[in-house]
Amino acid sequence: MTPTILVVGSLNMDLVVRAEHIPGPGQTLIGHDFQTVPGGKGANQAVAAARLGAKTYMVGRVGGDSFGSALVEALEESRVTTDYLEIDEMEANGVALILVDDQGENSIVVAPGANGKVTPHDVRSAEAAWAEASHVVLQLEIPLDAVECTLDTAREKGVTSVLDAGPAMKVPMELLRKADILSPNESETEALIGRRVTDLDSARDAAKCFLDNGIGTVVLKLGDEGCLVATASDMTHVPAHKVKAVDTTAAGDAFTAALAVSLAEGKFLLDAAHYAAAVGAIAVTCFGAQPSLPTREVVERFIASRT
Ligand code: RIB
């Protein structure tokens, strides 16, 4: 059966410049080139889920400027159902200013625009999506009342929620506890619980802290160290695939979406994390957010080539 995923979240147009390194305060640098690329954590996760074969709905908002149609088209090209996207003519579209250095690392600043206007009503209105989806994926690039409404609605409807804790910010623990699965990266973990994650031991300590605070399942993303899967009964490190990094933008989004798709297909959590690690690794090898998200066939070939 085709898995069905609902993504509630942001859409941004990414304005990307590549440069040798990321400049410090007050520094001007000549970069390589400039590109506009469809992005936004929510839209990236929706595109990733659809390319991996899930029937995918997206709830979110686009603004009235010319980026809006390109953002919606990018979703539709990957067969994401956009019936529940609101068009907010009075708002600008979300925009992300992204610098990517020659090692593939990035720095990102987001101007939320219409993403900042997503409401609990938008979330609840997606009735057909809620009726069909087994898993809902969300992030923190939309207002927290919409995040909370998504988590509450998921509980009411028996839909499993996967909360990607990006971008890094402090969020009340009561809100995080409403998620079935919480997936932060290192910097998001530090913002949420004040623990620096620098190695596997500190990752285990941070995961234990989340569990002690009542989070049921934590999948801590560790970049090129893979991820740590933590529940009350088990804590397992899933190593990363070694790849040449071109651009890490959206690798975390690819990971979270793949985790949800794999779980929606009925896989065990650890198997889903292994699959997600492969999908995240592939995303790192290509430039840009949505252009880097692999199809199911590409992932299968990658996994076969590594075993
Ligand atoms: O996670 C990557 C995404 O973060 C980018 O596409 C950018 O839009 C920001 O939302």
Question: In brief, what are we looking at here?
Answer:
The protein has helices at 41-51, 67-77, 120-125, 127-132, 144-157, 173-176, 186-193, 200-212, 251-264, 269-284, 296-305, and strands spanning 4-8, 12-18, 33-39, 55-63, 80-81, 85-88, 94-100, 106-111, 135-138, 160-164, 181-183, 217-221, 227-231, 234-238.
Please give a structural write-up.
This protein has 307 residues and is an alpha/beta fold. It has a single domain (4-8, 42-93, 116-305), classed as 3-Layer(aba) Sandwich (UDP-N-acetylmuramoyl-L-alanine:D-glutamate ligase), CATH 3.40.1190.20. It has helices at 41-51, 67-77, 120-125, 127-132, 144-157, 173-176, 186-193, 200-212, 251-264, 269-284, 296-305; strands spanning 4-8, 12-18, 33-39, 55-63, 80-81, 85-88, 94-100, 106-111, 135-138, 160-164, 181-183, 217-221, 227-231, 234-238. α1 (41-51) crosses α9 (251-264). It is globular. The two termini are 27 Å apart. Residues 10, 12, 14, 39-41, 44, 96, 108, 110, 141, 249-250, 252-253, 289 line the site of alpha-D-ribofuranose. Alpha-D-ribofuranose binds next to β2, α1, β8 and α9.
